[in-house]
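ENTRY TYPE: protein
WANTED: fold as tokens:
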Amino acid sequence: MKKSWSELTWNEKKAKFSIFAGIFLLLSIFTFFQTPHPKIEDLKEIEIKLDREPKFKKSRGKNSSNWLGIYSENIEYKLDGIDYKYLKIESFNKNIHKDTIITIKLSEENIYEMVYKNEDLTDYNLTQIHKTKNRTFCQIIFFSGFILNSFPLFFKRNPVYKNYYSEKKEINFIKIFAFLWFSSIIIAIIYLGDLKYISGSEFINH
């Protein structure tokens, strides 16, 4: 029968803290190896004529994602991820159709900038800022989780304190961690300066 948290020995609790510390450490490290935003000078600029209507797509499942497919000469060019969020959707829907000629900057078949008659339909600079701040947000909350779960590992036994009635009570690390980790999320949001950098909305007004 599975034990409740209060029934676990201190060594069993430390084992669980070490597992979570390892998970948060791996997540923290992963954020440093995410695919970087390509430099504007490294992008290939081409002019294309659409041979069919653009198509907005959405993957199914719990972690669904949206992207835009643009087609020319039997090639699908894709605008996805955070770059997709910064698409000027009203102007795009109004102007971009079959036989429209546009200029795109891309890496492989991924679009990072789209221009129609001198109007930038995406925003490379804002997208780059968004990606950087989004990554920093993840680094803050993941590394905070690693530090908090590593802290109990330095104690040979569960630390105690005396309450108002001079009774010895074990420190409840779970409640302390929940409060401190939530605080780290608030600090990270304040650092970002805008909730749009962690928003799940399909498009961002800019």
Remarks:
- The mean pLDDT is 88.
- The chain has two domains: 5-33+127-198, 40-122.
- The longest helix spans residues 124-150.
